[in-house]
Write a structure and sequence with these properties.
The chain folds into two domains: 17-110, RNA polymerase sigma factor, region 2, helix turn helix motif (Rna Polymerase Sigma Factor, Chain: A); 124-199, Arc Repressor Mutant, subunit A (Orthogonal Bundle), CATH 1.10.10. The chain is 65% helix and 0% strand. The chain has helices at residues 22-32, 36-58, 65-78, 89-110, 130-135, 137-149, 152-163, 168-175, 179-199. Helix 1 (22-32) crosses helix 2, helix 2 (36-58) packs across helix 3 (65-78) and helix 2 crosses helix 4 (89-110). The chain starts with 21 loop residues before the first helix and ends with a helix.
Length: 200
């Protein structure tokens, strides 16, 4: 697995649940001594958990998963010296993964809005409740297919709002956009989602 340069991210306090087991501490110490085999073992040991977490949070944008997983391990390896061992290493890595996913959402929402031909302008009250559609197991596959057809800015906006439960205000603060601009993106995304939903 190749790694790209990235800024290390702080570990959220929420992941502090237990002391690090001795074998994990030994692994961390070996990686800090620049033992390449230990670094490979760290990645190998936790790659499935981090990949599964990132994949779950990014669905249906699965083409971005591998890049984000690489970013997680690069950030972890570059900030491993700050790992205090007050939580299991896996929890610490998932905390970094959570931050990477949120950074991805923020960056996508900062992108200019795509322009679509025949874009709907229906009132939000007439649109299907996207969070209910996504939450229902039997509708999830259909919703995933539709999200894949949307421009990335729209699908990310819907996922952040309904999957992650962020308010338009929180999304605006995280992206540096106005709340009204975020609401406009969400309204267009919901309208496009409904249009595709009705066609399917």
């Amino acid at each position: 697995m190749s790694f790209r340069e990235s800024e290390p991210e702080p570990v959220p306090a929420a992941v502090v649940v237990a002391d690090t087991p001795p074998d994990e501490r030994q692994l961390v110490d070996a990686v800090l001594r620049r033992d390449r085999k230990a670094a490979a073992e760290l990645v190998s040991r936790y790659a499935d958990a981090v990949h599964g977490y990132v994949r779950h949070r990014l669905a249906p944008r699965l083409d971005r998963v591998d890049d984000l997983v690489q970013d997680v391990f690069l950030a972890a390896l570059s900030s491993l010296g700050s790992f205090r061992g007050t939580s299991p290493l896996g929890a610490w890595l998932l905390g970094i993964a959570r931050h990477k996913v949120e950074t991805y959402y923020r960056e996508q929402l900062r992108q200019p809005e795509p322009l679509l031909d025949g874009e709907g302008t229906e009132a939000a009250a007439e649109l299907p409740l996207v969070d209910e559609v996504i939450d229902r197991e039997r509708m999830q596959a259909r919703a995933q297919r539709i999200l894949q057809q949307l421009p990335e800015a729209y699908s990310v906006a819907l996922l952040w709002r309904y999957w992650e439960g962020r308010s338009a205000r929180q999304m605006a603060e995280a992206t540096g956009r106005t709340e009204k601009a975020v609401e406009r993106v969400l309204a267009r995304a919901r309208a496009r989602f409904r249009e595709l939903w009705e066609r399917e």
